[in-house]
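Journal club prep — side note

Before the paper discussion, L.F. wants everyone to see what a predicted structure for a comparable chain looks like in token form. Sequence:
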Amino acid sequence: MKRQIIKIDEEKCNGCGLCVPNCAEGAIQIIGGKARLISDLLCDGLGACLGHCPEGAISIEEREAEPYDERRVMDGIIKGGPAVIAAHLQHLREHGQTAYYDEALRVLKERGIAVPQAAAPAAKHTGCPGMRMLDRTRAPAAPAAPAPAGTTPSALRQWPVQLRLLQPHAPFFANADLLVAADCVPFALADFHSRLLQGKVLIVFCPKLDAHLEQYVEKLAAIFRTHTIRSITVAHMEVPCCSGVGRVVKAALQQAGVQIPVTDITVTLQGDLQHG
């Protein structure tokens, strides 16, 4: 499967670094005096960095990138040398991509390439804790224990949950039932975890206050194209502006060219559920 992703022309790049802070996913670093895309995994292809390159060295290309193949990515990473390898491994660790990190280590071992000290398995997470990926979807179920009176166990199975912070290649999306909810829904629905979230992977955003909803459409479409999604539950408030959640999901399905069963749920201001 093909997708859009940035391409950096090293001949044009002067290493100014203006693109780095404008890459929301942290996919670009200055290494060896040149801007480099350190991991396909982190680039969503939206091109937020394009307008910040004074040399016009960054463009968008469409190439084979799906499904994500760590071994294929490592072919290019290894050519960049130890510094590029270290940066790639560190990003995999910081974004919770344990399976890809382990696969990268296997590739290095098979080819007799030493793991750079800065990216050794003992390295500690140094990224933003709020963006560090947590996947509990495959964790074995813990023995049931009586919950204290008046409490409800959390049904949250992954982190992060905000669409802006989510990575389309996150492993917890594989074969998932998605709950795409407006930000206000969990506050209005008292038993949100037990009635809506149980067994689902959560995505939240605000269709009224969040800017650039077209980028959300792009990111959701990437999730839908990359993974087998079993179902989507859309939950929004009864106020008219909140129905935009459903429109974003519908546009993403059309862009991805896939068909996934969608259930629409409206939450009233009194905290009741209405199936649309």
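L.F.'s comment for the group: The chain is about 25% helix and 20% strand. Keep this in mind when we get to the figures.
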